[in-house]
Structure prediction request, 271 residues.
Amino acid sequence: MLETLDLPIPSASLDGFILARERVATHLDQIFALLVEIDHSLLSLGALGGVSSLLSPSLLKMYGRETLLNDLIKSQDTLKKRLDAELWDVLFKASGVRSFMDAEARARFQKSRDKLDIVPLTKESLKSTFRALYADREEMFANGVENLFRGLSWDHRTNSPVAFGRKLILRVRSYMATTGLDPSAANTLDDLVRALCVLSGKPEPDHRHGMFQVLGPVMSASARGEWSGEFFRVHWYKNGMGHFEFLDPELVLKLNKVLASRYPAALAHVR
Prediction:
């Protein structure tokens, strides 16, 4: 059995998860071993193209049996990496770790996932990875809040240079666009909503219901307007700026307490 990792996933479920992954990996090995066996059998029967003559006859003429068979064998490792990438993604979502990661940290994980630069999923790698992530989760969350704060523009007096205020101003539309929500602004707002969910003890919204999907269509319908959500109200204008007002001042105080942990001298009054 896996040791308790303080995860919202039962240890027995993690054991089953690892065993299921090992079964799939074993089946992949068996499939490729059978393909090699079929290749040898076809050669013994005089089919000089081997298994490649069955799988990709058109490519066989271009590249030859040896090249295609080698590529097929190499794809075995690629398939296992894709398997691990998918399963790590499932575990990151189910464990709640993603809630503490800002857009930058998520982008790094997604880049590693897309490049298949992923550690094979084993009992040991799972324990070490999640122990490290959960030990650092408060630091990751504070990084996200700080990055969010640093992303505010100080060209607007509404945005305080030392703390989150009850109101803030963000550019929500690029200079060239007349409608819609800028993807970069959507990422910033998703980070904000994620932080507010964590601080209020509420579950993180499904990524399919992010601000780009929720607010984007509303802003596409009008060059200026108003929208209210669970945590804030926003007015957007033709110049592309969005004026946000937090609905719960207690959550603003909690955001500033996170900042105060990084800058105690500057924010001593909210510690």
Q: What stands out?
A: The chain has two domains: 11-135, 140-270. Strands lie at 167-171, 225-228, 232-236, 241-246. The two ends are 42 Å apart (CA to CA). Residues 19 and 122 are 9 Å apart (CA to CA).
